[in-house]
Amino acid sequence: MTDINTQITTDGTMQVERKPNLNILMTPEAMMQSQIDGLKAENESLTRELAELRAKSNVLIRATYEDAAQIAESYRGGKRHANRMRARTPDYAEAALEARDRAMRNEGRRQAAEACNHWHQITHIRAAILALIEKEPDGKRDE
User: Fold this and answer.
1) Segments forming the whole domain that contains residue 43
2) What are phi and psi for residue 88, nearest 5 degrees?
3) For the chain, which terminus, N or C, has the lower number of CB atoms within 10 Å?
4) Where are the alpha helices (DSSP H) in 1-143?
5) Element at 89 (helix H, strand E)
6) Rounded CA separation 139/100 (Å)
7) What pLDDT digit, counting tens, does each position of 54-107 carry?
8) pTM of the model
């Protein structure tokens, strides 16, 4: 048994590649282990890539804080604000973004609850939506 891999090339012709399917020679357990090993390798690769992207975004966030601090210093009395900006870390930016996202979700939930209030049949849906807001209050969490 063979797997056929076809691709259309840039000049519009079709290229066919035949690979022997070696999986028929493997036990189901070996096939599953092979898939697990492949997924683990892919996970490790993606984890490294994510770490690199986080490092790059952290550099950009720090540069943004520094730029804002330099602008603040140019104003009278801005040195104190500039120092506060320089003390910020990417964690502050992530927390602020999460708080903003929570507030936006809750606003959408409030609007949905308000829309449900007009129809008596779905007041239980309104109660469920309002319960979601109680679980995730606006603003920063103390976790």
Assistant:
1) 32-88
2) -70, 150
3) C
4) 28-73, 79-86, 90-116, 123-135
5) none
6) 7
7) 889 888 888 888 888 888 888 877 888 888 888 888 888 888 888 888 888 888
8) 0.45
